[in-house]
Amino acid sequence: MATHNAWWPIAAYVALMAGVGFVTTFFTPETRGRDLTLHHDARPGESQW
Predict the structure, then answer these.
(1) Membrane spanning segments where (predicted)?
(2) φ and ψ of 6, to 5 deg
(3) Which of 17, 10, 18 has the alpha carbon at shortest distance from 1?
(4) Distance in angstroms (rounded) separating the CA atoms of residues 12 and 22
């Protein structure tokens, strides 16, 4: 993909990745205070909402 020394493809990529990171914070469970080496604390799909 030739960008001809344009800055906007990099800015668009960074903005897209920031958006992905922002959105995924609302869908991942909180892990603070959990011991993820224990099976019952590391189970996927547990949510408190």
Answers:
(1) 6-27
(2) -85, 145
(3) 10
(4) 15
